[in-house]
Amino acid sequence: MRHVTGSAEEEQVNTVSDDAAAHDAAANGGSGTPASGAAAHGNPATGNPATGGPAAAEARAPGATGAEDTGGAGRLIGVGLGPGDPSLMTVRAVEAIAEADVVAYHSARHGRSIARSIAERHLRADHMEEALVYPVTTESTDHPGGYRGALEDFYAEASARLAAHLDAGRTVAVLAEGDPFFYGSYMHMHKRLAHRYPTEVVPGVTSVSAAAARLGTPLSEAEEALTVLPGTLPEEELTARLASSDAVAVMKLGRTFPKVRRALERSGRLAEARYVERATMQGERTGRVADVDPESVPYFSVAVLPSKVGAAARECREDSPGEVVVVGTGPAGPLWLTPETRGALAAADDVVGYTTYLDRVPRRDGQRRHGSDNRVEAERAEFALELARRGRRVAVVSGGDPGVFAMATAVLEAAEQDAYADVPVRVLPGVTAANAAAARVGAPLGHDYAVLSLSDRLKPWEVIAGRLRAAAAADLVLALYNPGSRSRTWQVGKAREVLLEHRAPDTPVVLARDIGGDGERIRTVPLAELDPDQVDMRTLLIVGSSQTRTFGGADSPTRVWTPRRYPED
Protein backbone atom coordinates (compact mmCIF):
# COMPACT_ATOMS: atom_id res chain seq x y z
CA MET A 1 0.00 0.00 0.00
CA ARG A 2 1.44 3.33 -1.01
CA HIS A 3 1.42 6.25 1.43
CA VAL A 4 1.56 9.93 0.51
CA THR A 5 2.28 13.03 2.53
CA GLY A 6 0.81 16.52 2.26
CA SER A 7 1.63 16.54 -1.41
CA ALA A 8 0.03 16.51 -4.81
CA GLU A 9 -2.47 13.87 -3.81
CA GLU A 10 -3.66 15.82 -0.80
CA GLU A 11 -5.22 18.19 -3.29
CA GLN A 12 -6.40 15.60 -5.77
CA VAL A 13 -9.50 14.02 -4.31
CA ASN A 14 -11.78 13.97 -1.31
CA THR A 15 -12.87 10.36 -1.28
CA VAL A 16 -12.11 7.91 1.51
CA SER A 17 -10.25 5.55 -0.80
CA ASP A 18 -6.91 6.06 -2.53
CA ASP A 19 -5.15 4.98 -5.67
CA ALA A 20 -4.30 1.72 -3.90
CA ALA A 21 -7.92 0.74 -4.43
CA ALA A 22 -7.24 0.64 -8.14
CA HIS A 23 -4.00 -1.34 -7.96
CA ASP A 24 -5.79 -4.60 -8.76
CA ALA A 25 -7.46 -3.13 -11.83
CA ALA A 26 -5.93 -3.02 -15.28
CA ALA A 27 -4.15 0.22 -16.10
CA ASN A 28 -6.76 2.87 -16.86
CA GLY A 29 -9.45 0.22 -16.66
CA GLY A 30 -8.16 -1.41 -19.82
CA SER A 31 -8.99 1.61 -21.90
CA GLY A 32 -5.68 1.78 -23.65
CA THR A 33 -5.50 5.47 -22.81
CA PRO A 34 -1.95 6.83 -22.85
CA ALA A 35 -0.57 7.99 -19.50
CA SER A 36 -0.43 11.55 -20.79
CA GLY A 37 -1.89 13.47 -23.65
CA ALA A 38 -5.28 13.01 -25.32
CA ALA A 39 -6.44 9.66 -26.62
CA ALA A 40 -6.81 9.57 -30.37
CA HIS A 41 -10.45 8.56 -30.35
CA GLY A 42 -12.60 9.85 -33.15
CA ASN A 43 -16.13 11.15 -32.75
CA PRO A 44 -18.54 9.50 -35.18
CA ALA A 45 -21.26 11.92 -34.16
CA THR A 46 -19.41 14.78 -35.81
CA GLY A 47 -17.91 12.97 -38.72
CA ASN A 48 -14.58 14.54 -37.84
CA PRO A 49 -12.16 12.15 -36.12
CA ALA A 50 -9.49 14.84 -35.94
CA THR A 51 -11.44 17.29 -33.82
CA GLY A 52 -13.90 14.95 -32.10
CA GLY A 53 -16.54 17.46 -30.96
CA PRO A 54 -19.21 19.91 -32.09
CA ALA A 55 -17.98 23.19 -33.48
CA ALA A 56 -20.38 25.31 -31.48
CA ALA A 57 -20.85 25.36 -27.72
CA GLU A 58 -24.11 24.01 -26.32
CA ALA A 59 -26.47 26.27 -24.43
CA ARG A 60 -25.30 26.77 -20.88
CA ALA A 61 -26.81 24.37 -18.37
CA PRO A 62 -28.79 25.74 -15.45
CA GLY A 63 -26.46 27.02 -12.77
CA ALA A 64 -23.50 27.26 -15.15
CA THR A 65 -20.89 29.97 -14.71
CA GLY A 66 -18.06 31.34 -16.76
CA ALA A 67 -17.51 33.70 -19.67
CA GLU A 68 -20.58 35.02 -21.47
CA ASP A 69 -19.12 35.97 -24.88
CA THR A 70 -17.16 32.90 -25.88
CA GLY A 71 -17.81 32.65 -29.60
CA GLY A 72 -17.47 29.04 -30.66
CA ALA A 73 -15.75 27.92 -27.43
CA GLY A 74 -16.72 24.68 -25.79
CA ARG A 75 -18.06 24.14 -22.29
CA LEU A 76 -16.18 23.07 -19.16
CA ILE A 77 -17.92 20.80 -16.61
CA GLY A 78 -16.45 19.80 -13.26
CA VAL A 79 -18.16 16.50 -12.44
CA GLY A 80 -18.38 15.29 -8.84
CA LEU A 81 -18.49 11.50 -8.80
CA GLY A 82 -19.18 10.91 -5.12
CA PRO A 83 -17.11 8.85 -2.67
CA GLY A 84 -16.43 5.80 -4.80
CA ASP A 85 -19.50 3.62 -5.30
CA PRO A 86 -20.61 4.31 -8.91
CA SER A 87 -24.25 4.03 -7.82
CA LEU A 88 -23.75 7.17 -5.71
CA MET A 89 -23.11 9.35 -8.75
CA THR A 90 -25.86 11.91 -9.24
CA VAL A 91 -28.15 11.89 -12.25
CA ARG A 92 -26.63 15.19 -13.35
CA ALA A 93 -23.12 13.71 -13.17
CA VAL A 94 -24.16 10.92 -15.53
CA GLU A 95 -25.82 13.43 -17.87
CA ALA A 96 -22.73 15.65 -17.88
CA ILE A 97 -20.48 12.76 -18.90
CA ALA A 98 -22.94 11.86 -21.65
CA GLU A 99 -22.84 15.46 -22.95
CA ALA A 100 -19.06 15.58 -23.00
CA ASP A 101 -16.80 15.15 -25.99
CA VAL A 102 -13.70 14.98 -23.80
CA VAL A 103 -13.41 13.26 -20.42
CA ALA A 104 -10.43 14.31 -18.30
CA TYR A 105 -9.26 12.81 -15.02
CA HIS A 106 -6.25 13.00 -12.72
CA SER A 107 -3.99 10.10 -11.89
CA ALA A 108 -0.60 9.35 -10.41
CA ARG A 109 2.31 8.29 -12.60
CA HIS A 110 1.17 4.66 -12.73
CA GLY A 111 -1.63 5.94 -14.97
CA ARG A 112 -4.51 4.33 -13.09
CA SER A 113 -7.33 6.65 -12.06
CA ILE A 114 -9.96 6.06 -9.39
CA ALA A 115 -12.09 8.79 -10.95
CA ARG A 116 -12.10 6.97 -14.28
CA SER A 117 -12.90 3.64 -12.65
CA ILE A 118 -15.94 5.15 -10.91
CA ALA A 119 -17.29 6.63 -14.14
CA GLU A 120 -16.16 3.81 -16.43
CA ARG A 121 -19.61 2.39 -17.14
CA HIS A 122 -20.66 5.78 -18.54
CA LEU A 123 -17.69 6.24 -20.89
CA ARG A 124 -18.22 5.68 -24.62
CA ALA A 125 -15.87 4.56 -27.34
CA ASP A 126 -16.16 7.97 -28.97
CA HIS A 127 -15.15 9.87 -25.85
CA MET A 128 -11.76 11.51 -26.09
CA GLU A 129 -9.86 10.94 -22.85
CA GLU A 130 -7.30 13.22 -21.21
CA ALA A 131 -5.28 11.60 -18.43
CA LEU A 132 -3.82 14.41 -16.30
CA VAL A 133 -0.85 12.64 -14.74
CA TYR A 134 0.75 14.23 -11.71
CA PRO A 135 4.54 14.50 -12.11
CA VAL A 136 5.15 13.95 -8.37
CA THR A 137 3.25 12.30 -5.53
CA THR A 138 5.66 13.12 -2.70
CA GLU A 139 7.73 16.15 -1.75
CA SER A 140 10.81 14.70 -3.50
CA THR A 141 11.53 16.32 -6.87
CA ASP A 142 14.47 17.70 -8.80
CA HIS A 143 12.31 20.46 -10.30
CA PRO A 144 14.16 23.82 -10.00
CA GLY A 145 11.09 25.33 -8.35
CA GLY A 146 10.76 22.46 -5.91
CA TYR A 147 7.55 20.60 -5.20
CA ARG A 148 5.28 23.63 -5.61
CA GLY A 149 7.07 24.63 -8.78
CA ALA A 150 6.54 21.17 -10.27
CA LEU A 151 2.83 21.32 -9.47
CA GLU A 152 2.44 24.84 -10.89
CA ASP A 153 3.98 23.71 -14.17
CA PHE A 154 1.72 20.66 -14.21
CA TYR A 155 -1.46 22.69 -13.61
CA ALA A 156 -0.46 25.16 -16.32
CA GLU A 157 0.25 22.37 -18.82
CA ALA A 158 -2.93 20.45 -17.93
CA SER A 159 -5.17 23.50 -18.21
CA ALA A 160 -3.56 24.37 -21.56
CA ARG A 161 -4.42 20.89 -22.86
CA LEU A 162 -8.03 21.31 -21.79
CA ALA A 163 -8.16 24.84 -23.23
CA ALA A 164 -7.16 23.47 -26.63
CA HIS A 165 -10.26 21.25 -26.61
CA LEU A 166 -12.47 24.08 -25.39
CA ASP A 167 -11.15 26.41 -28.08
CA ALA A 168 -12.03 23.75 -30.63
CA GLY A 169 -15.64 23.83 -29.44
CA ARG A 170 -15.60 20.60 -27.45
CA THR A 171 -17.38 20.04 -24.15
CA VAL A 172 -14.87 18.91 -21.54
CA ALA A 173 -15.92 16.99 -18.41
CA VAL A 174 -13.26 16.88 -15.68
CA LEU A 175 -13.95 13.99 -13.31
CA ALA A 176 -13.44 14.49 -9.58
CA GLU A 177 -13.98 12.02 -6.75
CA GLY A 178 -16.25 13.35 -4.04
CA ASP A 179 -17.21 16.96 -4.70
CA PRO A 180 -15.15 19.08 -7.14
CA PHE A 181 -14.90 22.03 -4.74
CA PHE A 182 -14.18 20.03 -1.56
CA TYR A 183 -10.42 19.39 -1.52
CA GLY A 184 -10.84 18.38 -5.15
CA SER A 185 -8.23 18.48 -7.90
CA TYR A 186 -10.74 19.96 -10.34
CA MET A 187 -10.54 23.35 -8.62
CA HIS A 188 -7.04 23.92 -10.07
CA MET A 189 -8.47 23.65 -13.57
CA HIS A 190 -11.48 25.75 -12.62
CA LYS A 191 -9.34 28.63 -11.37
CA ARG A 192 -7.42 28.70 -14.64
CA LEU A 193 -10.29 28.19 -17.09
CA ALA A 194 -13.69 29.17 -15.68
CA HIS A 195 -13.25 32.88 -16.42
CA ARG A 196 -12.61 32.06 -20.09
CA TYR A 197 -15.29 29.45 -20.89
CA PRO A 198 -18.89 28.63 -19.97
CA THR A 199 -18.53 26.44 -16.91
CA GLU A 200 -20.73 24.20 -14.78
CA VAL A 201 -19.80 22.43 -11.57
CA VAL A 202 -21.77 19.31 -10.66
CA PRO A 203 -21.64 18.69 -6.91
CA GLY A 204 -21.05 15.22 -5.58
CA VAL A 205 -21.48 13.28 -2.34
CA THR A 206 -18.42 14.03 -0.21
CA SER A 207 -16.30 11.49 1.62
CA VAL A 208 -17.36 13.06 4.90
CA SER A 209 -21.03 12.38 4.17
CA ALA A 210 -20.20 8.86 3.04
CA ALA A 211 -18.16 8.21 6.18
CA ALA A 212 -21.05 9.23 8.44
CA ALA A 213 -23.43 7.07 6.45
CA ARG A 214 -21.18 4.03 6.74
CA LEU A 215 -20.73 4.63 10.46
CA GLY A 216 -24.49 4.94 10.81
CA THR A 217 -24.27 8.04 12.98
CA PRO A 218 -25.23 11.69 12.45
CA LEU A 219 -22.36 14.06 11.78
CA SER A 220 -23.96 17.08 13.44
CA GLU A 221 -27.35 17.88 14.85
CA ALA A 222 -29.30 20.77 16.37
CA GLU A 223 -26.87 23.66 16.97
CA GLU A 224 -23.69 21.65 16.63
CA ALA A 225 -21.10 22.98 14.19
CA LEU A 226 -19.26 20.59 11.86
CA THR A 227 -15.55 21.29 11.41
CA VAL A 228 -13.52 19.72 8.60
CA LEU A 229 -9.77 19.62 9.20
CA PRO A 230 -6.91 18.49 6.94
CA GLY A 231 -4.56 16.13 8.73
CA THR A 232 -1.66 18.06 7.23
CA LEU A 233 -2.12 20.89 9.77
CA PRO A 234 0.59 21.24 12.44
CA GLU A 235 -0.06 19.04 15.48
CA GLU A 236 -0.56 21.97 17.86
CA GLU A 237 -3.12 23.50 15.53
CA LEU A 238 -4.93 20.20 15.13
CA THR A 239 -5.06 19.75 18.89
CA ALA A 240 -6.49 23.22 19.44
CA ARG A 241 -9.10 22.82 16.72
CA LEU A 242 -10.15 19.37 17.92
CA ALA A 243 -10.49 20.62 21.49
CA SER A 244 -12.67 23.57 20.50
CA SER A 245 -14.95 21.89 17.92
CA ASP A 246 -18.23 20.02 18.14
CA ALA A 247 -18.40 17.40 15.39
CA VAL A 248 -15.21 16.96 13.34
CA ALA A 249 -14.02 15.19 10.21
CA VAL A 250 -10.25 14.91 9.76
CA MET A 251 -9.17 14.23 6.20
CA LYS A 252 -5.85 13.51 4.51
CA LEU A 253 -4.58 10.83 6.84
CA GLY A 254 -2.01 8.31 5.56
CA ARG A 255 1.36 9.49 6.84
CA THR A 256 -0.33 12.13 8.97
CA PHE A 257 -2.25 9.51 10.98
CA PRO A 258 0.19 9.25 13.94
CA LYS A 259 0.12 13.03 14.33
CA VAL A 260 -3.68 13.12 14.09
CA ARG A 261 -3.97 10.34 16.66
CA ARG A 262 -1.71 12.22 19.08
CA ALA A 263 -3.76 15.40 18.58
CA LEU A 264 -6.96 13.47 19.30
CA GLU A 265 -5.42 12.07 22.47
CA ARG A 266 -4.06 15.43 23.64
CA SER A 267 -7.43 17.08 23.08
CA GLY A 268 -9.17 14.35 25.09
CA ARG A 269 -11.20 13.10 22.14
CA LEU A 270 -9.50 9.87 21.09
CA ALA A 271 -12.10 7.64 22.74
CA GLU A 272 -14.93 9.07 20.64
CA ALA A 273 -13.04 9.18 17.34
CA ARG A 274 -14.12 6.79 14.58
CA TYR A 275 -12.21 5.66 11.50
CA VAL A 276 -13.48 5.09 7.96
CA GLU A 277 -11.41 3.82 5.06
CA ARG A 278 -12.61 3.36 1.45
CA ALA A 279 -16.22 4.18 2.37
CA THR A 280 -18.74 2.71 -0.10
CA MET A 281 -15.96 0.86 -1.98
CA GLN A 282 -14.52 -2.63 -1.97
CA GLY A 283 -12.15 -3.02 0.97
CA GLU A 284 -14.10 -0.61 3.17
CA ARG A 285 -13.00 -0.60 6.81
CA THR A 286 -14.48 1.13 9.85
CA GLY A 287 -13.64 1.12 13.52
CA ARG A 288 -12.23 3.13 16.40
CA VAL A 289 -9.26 5.38 15.66
CA ALA A 290 -7.61 4.12 18.85
CA ASP A 291 -7.57 0.56 17.45
CA VAL A 292 -6.11 1.35 14.00
CA ASP A 293 -2.55 0.32 13.09
CA PRO A 294 -0.84 3.50 11.83
CA GLU A 295 1.07 1.48 9.22
CA SER A 296 -2.19 0.34 7.64
CA VAL A 297 -3.76 3.74 7.02
CA PRO A 298 -4.08 4.92 3.39
CA TYR A 299 -4.18 8.57 2.44
CA PHE A 300 -7.86 8.52 1.57
CA SER A 301 -9.35 7.71 4.93
CA VAL A 302 -11.24 9.86 7.40
CA ALA A 303 -11.33 10.25 11.18
CA VAL A 304 -14.74 11.31 12.45
CA LEU A 305 -15.89 12.81 15.75
CA PRO A 306 -19.65 12.43 15.29
CA SER A 307 -22.55 14.28 16.84
CA LYS A 308 -22.92 14.15 20.60
CA VAL A 309 -26.64 14.87 20.50
CA GLY A 310 -28.55 11.88 21.77
CA ALA A 311 -25.36 10.02 22.72
CA ALA A 312 -25.75 7.67 25.64
CA ALA A 313 -25.18 9.36 28.98
CA ARG A 314 -21.90 8.48 30.63
CA GLU A 315 -22.27 5.97 33.43
CA CYS A 316 -21.56 7.45 36.86
CA ARG A 317 -20.25 5.21 39.63
CA GLU A 318 -19.53 6.00 43.24
CA ASP A 319 -16.17 4.21 43.04
CA SER A 320 -15.10 6.00 39.83
CA PRO A 321 -14.66 9.74 40.53
CA GLY A 322 -15.10 12.21 37.74
CA GLU A 323 -13.25 15.51 37.75
CA VAL A 324 -13.73 19.22 38.22
CA VAL A 325 -12.36 21.61 35.62
CA VAL A 326 -12.50 25.30 36.54
CA VAL A 327 -12.68 27.33 33.34
CA GLY A 328 -12.45 31.03 32.58
CA THR A 329 -14.88 32.49 30.06
CA GLY A 330 -12.99 35.74 29.58
CA PRO A 331 -14.66 39.08 30.14
CA ALA A 332 -17.67 38.50 27.88
CA GLY A 333 -19.13 35.98 25.42
CA PRO A 334 -17.95 33.05 23.26
CA LEU A 335 -15.36 35.08 21.32
CA TRP A 336 -13.21 35.13 24.46
CA LEU A 337 -13.21 31.37 25.09
CA THR A 338 -9.92 29.58 24.48
CA PRO A 339 -9.89 26.31 22.48
CA GLU A 340 -8.92 24.43 25.63
CA THR A 341 -11.85 25.92 27.53
CA ARG A 342 -14.27 25.12 24.71
CA GLY A 343 -13.10 21.52 24.78
CA ALA A 344 -13.57 21.22 28.54
CA LEU A 345 -17.05 22.72 28.33
CA ALA A 346 -18.00 20.36 25.51
CA ALA A 347 -16.78 17.31 27.44
CA ALA A 348 -18.55 18.19 30.71
CA ASP A 349 -21.57 16.28 31.96
CA ASP A 350 -22.47 19.20 34.25
CA VAL A 351 -21.75 22.92 34.08
CA VAL A 352 -21.85 24.85 37.35
CA GLY A 353 -21.61 28.60 37.82
CA TYR A 354 -23.03 32.03 38.43
CA THR A 355 -26.05 32.23 36.13
CA THR A 356 -24.74 35.30 34.27
CA TYR A 357 -21.54 33.43 33.39
CA LEU A 358 -23.40 30.24 32.45
CA ASP A 359 -25.32 32.24 29.85
CA ARG A 360 -22.00 32.96 28.10
CA VAL A 361 -21.20 29.35 27.25
CA PRO A 362 -22.77 27.18 24.53
CA ARG A 363 -25.56 24.82 25.50
CA ARG A 364 -25.06 21.09 24.85
CA ASP A 365 -27.73 18.46 24.43
CA GLY A 366 -27.88 16.21 27.49
CA GLN A 367 -25.63 18.47 29.54
CA ARG A 368 -26.92 19.60 32.93
CA ARG A 369 -26.54 23.27 33.87
CA HIS A 370 -26.61 24.41 37.50
CA GLY A 371 -26.89 28.17 37.91
CA SER A 372 -26.73 30.04 41.21
CA ASP A 373 -26.33 33.48 42.75
CA ASN A 374 -23.00 35.29 42.67
CA ARG A 375 -22.63 35.26 46.48
CA VAL A 376 -22.53 31.50 47.09
CA GLU A 377 -19.04 30.62 45.81
CA ALA A 378 -18.24 28.15 48.59
CA GLU A 379 -21.54 26.29 48.22
CA ARG A 380 -21.10 26.21 44.45
CA ALA A 381 -17.61 24.76 44.79
CA GLU A 382 -18.72 21.98 47.14
CA PHE A 383 -21.68 21.17 44.91
CA ALA A 384 -19.35 20.73 41.91
CA LEU A 385 -16.94 18.54 43.89
CA GLU A 386 -19.79 16.38 45.12
CA LEU A 387 -21.00 15.83 41.55
CA ALA A 388 -17.48 14.84 40.52
CA ARG A 389 -17.17 12.47 43.50
CA ARG A 390 -20.20 10.65 42.11
CA GLY A 391 -18.47 10.20 38.75
CA ARG A 392 -19.55 13.30 36.84
CA ARG A 393 -17.28 15.44 34.67
CA VAL A 394 -17.96 18.96 35.95
CA ALA A 395 -16.98 22.33 34.49
CA VAL A 396 -17.13 25.21 36.96
CA VAL A 397 -17.57 28.41 34.99
CA SER A 398 -15.86 31.59 36.10
CA GLY A 399 -15.69 35.01 34.49
CA GLY A 400 -12.35 36.25 33.19
CA ASP A 401 -9.52 34.07 34.48
CA PRO A 402 -10.68 31.64 37.19
CA GLY A 403 -7.52 32.21 39.22
CA VAL A 404 -7.87 35.99 39.47
CA PHE A 405 -10.38 36.93 42.20
CA ALA A 406 -12.58 34.09 40.94
CA MET A 407 -13.78 30.51 41.38
CA ALA A 408 -10.51 28.56 41.23
CA THR A 409 -9.61 29.58 44.79
CA ALA A 410 -13.05 28.64 46.11
CA VAL A 411 -12.90 25.21 44.47
CA LEU A 412 -9.38 24.46 45.69
CA GLU A 413 -10.26 25.60 49.20
CA ALA A 414 -13.18 23.16 49.28
CA ALA A 415 -11.10 20.43 47.62
CA GLU A 416 -8.79 20.37 50.66
CA GLN A 417 -11.48 18.50 52.56
CA ASP A 418 -10.84 14.79 53.06
CA ALA A 419 -14.11 13.89 51.34
CA TYR A 420 -12.78 15.18 48.03
CA ALA A 421 -9.18 14.00 48.30
CA ASP A 422 -9.59 11.68 45.29
CA VAL A 423 -11.38 14.19 43.04
CA PRO A 424 -9.06 15.62 40.36
CA VAL A 425 -9.26 19.40 39.97
CA ARG A 426 -7.87 21.25 36.96
CA VAL A 427 -7.80 25.01 36.36
CA LEU A 428 -7.84 26.32 32.79
CA PRO A 429 -6.84 29.96 32.25
CA GLY A 430 -8.97 32.62 30.64
CA VAL A 431 -8.54 36.20 29.49
CA THR A 432 -8.74 38.28 32.63
CA ALA A 433 -10.43 41.68 32.73
CA ALA A 434 -7.20 43.63 33.26
CA ASN A 435 -5.63 42.23 30.09
CA ALA A 436 -8.81 42.72 28.08
CA ALA A 437 -9.19 46.34 29.22
CA ALA A 438 -5.50 47.08 28.65
CA ALA A 439 -5.68 45.75 25.09
CA ARG A 440 -8.65 47.98 24.32
CA VAL A 441 -6.67 51.15 25.09
CA GLY A 442 -3.18 50.07 24.08
CA ALA A 443 -0.56 48.82 26.54
CA PRO A 444 -0.88 50.44 29.97
CA LEU A 445 0.40 47.20 31.56
CA GLY A 446 3.56 47.25 29.47
CA HIS A 447 5.79 47.56 32.53
CA ASP A 448 5.57 46.33 36.13
CA TYR A 449 2.06 46.41 37.56
CA ALA A 450 0.04 45.24 40.55
CA VAL A 451 -3.47 43.78 40.69
CA LEU A 452 -5.70 44.58 43.67
CA SER A 453 -9.33 44.16 44.58
CA LEU A 454 -11.10 47.09 46.26
CA SER A 455 -13.76 44.81 47.74
CA ASP A 456 -13.65 44.85 51.52
CA ARG A 457 -16.06 41.95 51.94
CA LEU A 458 -13.29 39.43 52.60
CA LYS A 459 -10.52 41.70 53.92
CA PRO A 460 -10.48 44.94 55.97
CA TRP A 461 -10.25 48.29 54.21
CA GLU A 462 -7.11 49.06 56.19
CA VAL A 463 -5.35 46.21 54.44
CA ILE A 464 -6.53 47.47 51.06
CA ALA A 465 -5.40 51.05 51.81
CA GLY A 466 -2.00 49.84 52.97
CA ARG A 467 -1.47 47.85 49.78
CA LEU A 468 -2.60 50.79 47.65
CA ARG A 469 -0.03 53.04 49.35
CA ALA A 470 2.73 50.47 48.93
CA ALA A 471 2.00 49.89 45.25
CA ALA A 472 1.61 53.62 44.57
CA ALA A 473 4.87 54.41 46.38
CA ALA A 474 6.60 51.74 44.26
CA ASP A 475 5.31 53.53 41.13
CA LEU A 476 3.51 50.44 39.85
CA VAL A 477 0.64 50.63 37.38
CA LEU A 478 -2.47 49.39 39.17
CA ALA A 479 -5.31 47.23 37.89
CA LEU A 480 -8.18 47.61 40.37
CA TYR A 481 -10.89 44.93 40.40
CA ASN A 482 -14.25 45.15 42.16
CA PRO A 483 -14.01 48.93 42.64
CA GLY A 484 -17.64 49.50 43.54
CA SER A 485 -21.19 48.17 43.64
CA ARG A 486 -24.62 49.25 44.80
CA SER A 487 -23.68 48.52 48.41
CA ARG A 488 -20.04 49.68 48.16
CA THR A 489 -20.10 53.29 47.05
CA TRP A 490 -17.26 55.01 48.93
CA GLN A 491 -14.24 52.79 48.19
CA VAL A 492 -13.35 54.43 44.86
CA GLY A 493 -13.25 57.90 46.44
CA LYS A 494 -11.03 56.67 49.29
CA ALA A 495 -8.74 54.88 46.83
CA ARG A 496 -8.37 58.10 44.82
CA GLU A 497 -7.35 59.98 47.97
CA VAL A 498 -4.72 57.37 48.84
CA LEU A 499 -3.29 57.30 45.31
CA LEU A 500 -3.07 61.10 45.11
CA GLU A 501 -0.65 60.95 48.03
CA HIS A 502 1.89 59.43 45.61
CA ARG A 503 0.61 60.14 42.10
CA ALA A 504 0.31 63.36 40.11
CA PRO A 505 -3.23 64.66 39.58
CA ASP A 506 -2.92 64.19 35.80
CA THR A 507 -2.01 60.47 36.07
CA PRO A 508 -4.17 58.68 33.46
CA VAL A 509 -6.89 56.38 34.76
CA VAL A 510 -8.72 53.99 32.41
CA LEU A 511 -12.34 53.23 33.27
CA ALA A 512 -13.24 50.04 31.35
CA ARG A 513 -16.81 48.88 31.68
CA ASP A 514 -18.28 45.60 30.34
CA ILE A 515 -15.38 44.85 27.99
CA GLY A 516 -16.60 42.69 25.11
CA GLY A 517 -20.24 43.08 26.12
CA ASP A 518 -23.12 45.10 24.76
CA GLY A 519 -22.53 47.81 27.36
CA GLU A 520 -18.82 48.25 26.67
CA ARG A 521 -17.62 51.76 27.48
CA ILE A 522 -14.05 52.99 27.89
CA ARG A 523 -12.95 56.39 29.15
CA THR A 524 -9.57 57.78 30.18
CA VAL A 525 -9.55 60.57 32.79
CA PRO A 526 -6.95 62.25 35.03
CA LEU A 527 -6.70 60.72 38.49
CA ALA A 528 -7.88 63.95 40.14
CA GLU A 529 -11.08 63.84 38.05
CA LEU A 530 -11.97 60.19 38.76
CA ASP A 531 -15.69 60.28 39.61
CA PRO A 532 -16.92 57.39 41.82
CA ASP A 533 -20.41 57.81 40.34
CA GLN A 534 -19.02 56.62 36.98
CA VAL A 535 -17.86 53.31 38.47
CA ASP A 536 -19.99 50.20 39.10
CA MET A 537 -19.40 46.49 39.68
CA ARG A 538 -18.83 45.88 35.95
CA THR A 539 -16.03 48.45 35.77
CA LEU A 540 -12.30 47.83 36.03
CA LEU A 541 -9.82 50.65 36.70
CA ILE A 542 -6.27 50.88 35.40
CA VAL A 543 -4.24 53.60 37.11
CA GLY A 544 -1.05 54.62 35.34
CA SER A 545 2.41 55.04 36.84
CA SER A 546 4.56 58.18 36.60
CA GLN A 547 5.79 56.86 33.23
CA THR A 548 2.43 56.05 31.62
CA ARG A 549 1.75 58.02 28.44
CA THR A 550 -1.35 58.91 26.46
CA PHE A 551 -1.95 60.21 22.96
CA GLY A 552 -4.88 60.66 20.60
CA GLY A 553 -8.25 61.94 21.67
CA ALA A 554 -10.62 64.38 19.94
CA ASP A 555 -11.29 62.54 16.65
CA SER A 556 -9.36 59.38 17.59
CA PRO A 557 -9.45 57.07 20.63
CA THR A 558 -7.11 57.86 23.49
CA ARG A 559 -4.21 55.39 23.49
CA VAL A 560 -2.55 54.58 26.80
CA TRP A 561 0.81 52.89 27.19
CA THR A 562 3.58 52.43 29.73
CA PRO A 563 7.16 52.31 28.39
CA ARG A 564 9.12 49.11 29.05
CA ARG A 565 12.24 51.10 29.92
CA TYR A 566 12.28 52.79 33.32
CA PRO A 567 14.48 55.89 33.71
CA GLU A 568 17.60 55.60 35.84
CA ASP A 569 17.96 57.96 38.82
List the defining traits of the structure above:
single chain, 569 residues, alpha/beta, five-stranded parallel β-sheet, five-stranded mixed β-sheet, 14 helices, disordered N terminus
**Rg from C-alpha positions?**
32 Å
Low-confidence stretches: 1-62, 312-318
What's the count of strands? 23
Distance between the termini: 72 Å
What is the fold's blueprint, element by element?
Elements: E1 76-80, H1 91-99, E2 102-107, H2 114-119, E3 128-133, H3 146-167, E4 172-176, H4 186-193, E5 199-202, H5 207-215, E6 226-230, H6 235-244, E7 247-251, H7 257-266, E8 274-277, E9 285-288, E10 301-305, E11 323-328, H8 339-347, E12 350-354, H9 355-358, E13 368-372, H10 377-389, E14 393-398, H11 407-415, E15 425-428, H12 433-441, E16 442-443, E17 449-453, H13 461-473, E18 477-481, H14 491-500, E19 508-513, E20 521-526, E21 539-543, E22 549-553, E23 556-561
Parallel strand pairs: 1-4, 1-5, 2-3, 2-4, 6-7, 11-14, 11-15, 12-13, 12-14, 16-23, 17-18
Antiparallel strand pairs: 7-10, 8-9, 8-10, 18-21, 19-20, 19-21, 22-23
Helix pairs in contact: 3-4, 6-7, 6-8, 10-11, 13-14
Describe this structure in words.
It is a single chain. The protein has 569 residues and is α/β, with parallel strands linked by helices. 25% of the residues lie in helices and 20% in strands. It has helices at 91-99, 114-119, 146-167, 186-193, 207-215, 235-244, 257-266, 339-347, 355-358, 377-389, 407-415, 433-441, 461-473, 491-500, and strands at residues 76-80, 102-107, 128-133, 172-176, 199-202, 226-230, 247-251, 274-277, 285-288, 301-305, 323-328, 350-354, 368-372, 393-398, 425-428, 442-443, 449-453, 477-481, 508-513, 521-526, 539-543, 549-553, 556-561. Strands 3-2-4-1-5 form a 5-stranded parallel β-sheet, with helices on both faces. Strands 6-7-10-8-9 form a 5-stranded mixed β-sheet, with helices on both faces. A hairpin with a 2-residue loop joins β22 (549-553) and β23 (556-561). α3 (146-167) packs across α4 (186-193) and α10 (377-389) packs across α11. The longest helix is centred in the first third of the chain and has 22 residues, at 146-167. The relative contact order is 0.09. Mean pLDDT is 85; it is low at 1-62 and 312-318.
